[in-house]
Write a structure and sequence with these properties.
Number of helices of chain C: 5
CATH superfamily of the largest domain in chain B: Class I glutamine amidotransferase (GATase) domain
Largest sheet of chain C: 5 strands, mixed
Structural class of chain B: alpha+beta
Radius of gyration of chain C: 51 Å
Distance between the termini of chain C: 134 Å
Shape of chain C: rod-shaped
Strand content of chain B: 25-35%
Chains: A mainly alpha, B alpha+beta, C alpha+beta
Number of strands of chain C: 9
Helix content of chain C: 25-40%
Helix content of chain B: 10-25%
Strand content of chain C: 15-25%
Number of domains of chain B: 2
Largest sheet of chain B: 9 strands, mixed
CATH architecture of the largest domain in chain C: Sandwich
Oligomer: heterotrimer
Number of domains of chain C: 2
């Protein structure tokens, strides 16, 4: 691409090209994981906003709800990392099935603690 | 609940004879030889008619002893030995004080002569005048000597003696009250009376000089006492009388200066009734506590619980020699204490159940070991004490309020994460693996 | 006791013969300030009390009179007392008055150095002052003199246990206030806000539209079903169950879950390997 004259279009160009590269190079499977990650992030932000703006009274409920989003995000992100074929060299002894089994077990345990604390 | 009737039943078994006093009916009268028993025949026969068994002895006799092997031998002791200077070995100030802790009641008479009993009076927060100074009064004008005084009966402590009594004849010494709330003043001196050893008007200067002396100064006025009771915490009572003549037959019958019979007989009977624990004797039968909608007392209570505390009170009725439920106390208070009272509230009587006093209150939101304390003391009545220990714990982990409206967003968040996880797993498990979909949005499987 | 009474009888006989009355001659009171200026000086009458007297902190009250019998001869009675009595509190103080042999009496009350027998006073309640004269040979005499306002003094000392013999003030515990809940509408709005990311998620997934060819396959579906059952069990635990119960049911449910999971994932592995 020819270098552009101003910096603004360069920045937006960089973002656009990042987006284009992401769109083309990421498999559908991974994209559905990313959608789930975005969903979890938005849900956590919404709960956090409620806690700051309105009330933190049942603080245990806030911790439970927020932790469910954050914990699930962490587990899903680690699933994505383990399953990505481009990371094959890092995770030689972990098959994608094994990664999903860990993900499912971790999620169930996380939800158990969340519901315990939710009150 | 069964404890409420077993105590009266046991007491009924113990006292076959209808004892008038709540603490027994054996009386030891220590009468000095100078005093003739027949001079007090009305007083003593009055006691015997009520059911008391009187045993007489002289101060120097060794038998019957008031204490044997550290056990009190009699329920009550009357000491009409105001001028005796030496007693037998079992009567000492220490042994008389120890009798009080063994629930034995005392009635002690004084006189202007100084005797070993004088030192005992100061143990009871009474200050006696210098020896040889009896109480005299020039008012009202009368034929009797100045030391024989008709004293109007004013109700210093309510309910101890009958109201509206005629003036009583008195001859003896006054005493001054020290600052002790356990003293129960029964009869105070008339305002115009004073203690003096004078017999003629020429003693006027001596009276004024006595006031200038240090210490108590002039012994005069209505702040002096003539008959005073002492009610310590244990329940036994001791009464001090400034002179023994007011119990004599002569004073029972002597006509008052304004005409009419004196109130000595009734007054003496009332004083004996109070001293021997017939009148104004109360006790707490039982206490119970529980949460508001339960009947069984809890082992532990939680902070902010609604608690109900009930106490059952009885008063001794000398006429029927029985303890009867008593709802007449309007100002009893309950304290809920952990080191300091956290709650002090009125404990009113319950209408419809005689003898029951009950209050409902909210337990404080501090946890710890608390006590329900009843501490009811009034002049003239037996002191009521009760202390029940109860632990107060913070709420258990599932004792807090749940499903609050303030937490709806969090509930929604947690549930939506669960549902999202489920949908995502379905999507993942049911979908294709990555091997065939490197590029593009939709791929068809082979 | 009898002998004591018998001794007094002769005296009594003498006393009865001379039971004449006593009166006061020229009773007068004077209030002066500390610098000896006279503030008030009036005679006292036996029939009418004067208006109430007021003494300041440094004033001096003097009362003078003479005790005479009927013939006007001055006598010294056995008992000449001034009684200060507070009707409201019941406190009383008795002060003797020195009388000469001729019956002349002078009483002085210096507020700068008050006598110890004066009862505790309040600024609002007066002391009633009475004169009490008693004698073995004359009829006794009692006379209300006047009401006296004195500056307030220290109250009588109280025994430390004294308050427990009266009704004591109630103690109420201040509880921590219940935490305030925000209005339900606000909570509902934010709950809807937390639901909003679903729109994003479903939109994105719809846009990506991943294929789900094996959804109803008998090797995959049981695993999804048991995962769903687990989530349902946890929701049930939040609503109703106790810890012991959920652990028990969870342990029971974990067996089919493990079996289904094993089957599902090994099938997926075979497919992935088969493709390669």
């Amino acid at each position: 691409m020819a270098p552009s004259k101003t910096s603004q279009p360069t920045q937006s160009n960089a973002v656009l090209s990042l987006w284009k590269a992401y769109n083309e190079n990421t498999s559908t499977r991974l994209k559905s994981v990313d959608a789930f990650l975005v969903f979890l992030m938005l849900s956590g932000i919404a709960q956090f906003l409620y806690c700051i703006l309105v009330t933190n009274y049942p603080f245990n409920a806030f911790l439970a709800g927020f932790a469910s989003c954050v914990g699930q995000f962490v587990l899903t992100a680690s699933l994505r990392a383990q399953v990505n074929p481009q990371n094959r060299s890092e995770f030689k002894e972990v098959s994608p099935e094994r990664a999903f089994a860990d993900f499912a077990l971790g999620s169930i345990v996380l939800h158990f603690f969340v519901y315990n604390f939710l009150g | 609940m069964w404890a409420r009737w077993i105590v009266p039943a046991l007491l009924g078994l113990v006292s076959f004879v209808t004892a008038k006093s709540s603490s027994g009916n054996s009386v030891l009268v220590i009468l000095e030889p100078k005093l003739d028993k027949d001079n007090f025949s009305k007083f003593f026969s009055g006691l015997e008619e009520k059911g008391y068994e009187l045993t007489f002895r002289a101060p120097k006799d060794t038998k019957p002893a008031i204490l044997e092997y550290d056990y009190a031998q009699f329920s009550h002791v009357i000491m009409f030995a105001p001028e005796t200077k030496s007693f037998s070995s079992d009567i000492t100030p220490q042994s008389l004080v120890s009798l009080l802790s063994k629930n034995t009641n005392l009635l002690i008479a004084l006189s202007p002569k100084q005797t070993p009993v004088y030192t005992l009076a100061s143990e009871f927060s009474l200050t006696l005048p210098p020896p040889g100074t009896p109480l005299i009064s020039h008012f009202p004008q009368r034929d009797d000597p100045a030391t024989v005084i008709p004293v109007p009966v004013r109700p210093v402590t309510p309910n101890v003696v009958s109201s509206k009594l005629a003036p009583v004849w008195f001859s003896g010494i006054p005493f001054a009250y020290q600052n002790n709330p356990l003293l129960v003043p029964i009869l105070n001196a008339p305002a115009e009376s004073f203690a003096s050893d004078g017999e003629t008007d020429s003693g006027a200067d001596a009276v004024v000089d006595a006031a200038d002396k240090g210490g108590e100064g002039l012994w005069a006025g209505s702040q002096m006492g003539l008959v005073a009771g002492f009610q310590p915490v244990g329940g036994a009572r001791a009464t001090w009388v400034g002179g023994v003549e007011m119990f004599s037959d002569e004073f029972f019958q002597k006509e008052l200066p304004g005409g009419g019979k004196p109130g000595n007989e009734q007054f003496a009977a009332d004083v004996a009734a109070w001293t021997f624990q017939e009148s104004l004797v109360l006790r707490i039968d039982s206490v119970e506590h529980h949460r508001v909608n339960e009947t069984v007392p809890g082992q532990v209570y939680t902070t902010n619980d609604q608690l109900v505390f009930s106490a059952y009170l009885s008063k001794y009725n000398p006429v029927s020699s029985a303890w009867e439920p008593f709802s007449g106390i309007q100002d009893m208070q309950l304290e809920f204490t952990m080191l300091d009272p956290h709650i002090r509230t009125a404990l009113p009587p319950v209408r419809g159940t005689p003898g029951k006093y009950s209050v409902t209150f909210r337990a404080p939101d501090r946890h710890g070991v608390f006590k329900f304390i009843i501490d009811y003391k009034r002049k003239g009545l037996t002191h009521l004490h009760s202390s029940t220990v109860v632990p107060l714990v913070p709420p258990r982990h599932d004792g807090y309020p749940r499903f609050l409206s303030a937490a709806w967003p969090y509930y929604v968040g947690a549930i939506s994460t669960s549902v999202g996880f489920l949908l995502f797993s379905a999507l993942w498990l049911a979908g294709d693996d990555r091997a065939g979909s490197a590029k593009g949005k939709t791929t068809k499987t082979e | 006791m009898r002998s004591f009474l018998a001794c007094l009888l002769p005296l009594l006989a003498i006393g009865n013969v001379y039971a004449s009355a006593l009166t006061l001659q020229s009773p007068r009171f004077t209030i002066s300030a500390s610098d000896a200026t006279q503030l008030r000086s009036e005679p006292l009458s036996t029939t009418k009390k004067p208006s109430a007297l007021t003494l300041g902190a440094k004033d001096v009250l003097k009362v003078t009179f003479q005790v005479v019998e009927e013939e006007g001869k001055g006598v010294q009675p056995h008992q000449t007392f001034l009684r200060f009595y507070d009707e409201v509190s019941g406190e009383e103080g008795i002060q003797p008055v020195r009388v000469t042999a001729g019956g002349k009496a002078k009483f002085e009350l210096n507020m700068a150095k008050p006598p110890a027998s004066l009862p505790p006073t309040t600024a609002s309640d007066p002391l009633k002052v009475e004169l009490i004269i008693g004698s073995f040979v004359h009829s006794p005499l009692k006379m209300d003199l006047f009401d006296l306002f004195l500056p307030a003094s220290q109250p009588a000392p109280q025994h430390p246990d004294e308050p427990s013999f009266h009704v004591r003030s109630e103690i109420h515990h201040t509880f921590q206030p219940d935490p305030k809940l925000p209005p339900k509408f606000i909570s509902a709005v934010f709950a809807a806000l937390v639901l909003a990311p679903w729109v994003v998620l479903l939109g994105l997934w719809g846009f990506i539209s991943p294929s789900v060819p094996h959804l109803l396959s008998p090797s995959i579906l049981p695993f999804i079903a048991t995962l769903g059952a687990f989530e349902g069990l946890l929701f049930w635990y939040w609503v109703d169950l106790k810890l012991g119960q959920v652990l028990l049911y969870g342990a029971i449910l974990s067996i089919p879950t493990l079996i289904a999971g094993n089957q599902a994932l090994s099938t997926m592995g075979k497919w992935r390997a088969g493709r390669k």
